[in-house]
Amino acid sequence: MGKRLLVQRRGRGGSVFRSPSWKRVGRVAYRPYTREDVYGKLVRGRVVELLHDPGRGAPVARVRFEDGVEMLMVAAEGMAVGQTIYYGARAPISLGSILPVGKIPE
Fold first, then answer.
1. CATH of domain 20-96
2. What is the structure's pLDDT at 28?
3. Which pLDDT does position 76 carry in this prediction?
4. What is residue 86's three-state secondary structure?
């Protein structure tokens, strides 16, 4: 008789393979925006801290923008505390900047 494959064991949903969602740091999402926010202005933000989020493979960055909005986002590779990131359609192409999909060059 054969053994159960690893994916079959994972699919069962036992405690070993379940993600600890109750330990999460917070809701990880981009800041809420309106059309004029994205296309009308450029918002600067600073990475305040990098956090470990249990149940997630990537670190999370806490970003505070110049207009007072604070958000958690998945940290880009090479992101550092104190780094400036930009948000909007006119944002320069740099590490961690957030642009609409249509404005990202190939």
1. 2.40.50.140
2. 92
3. 93
4. strand
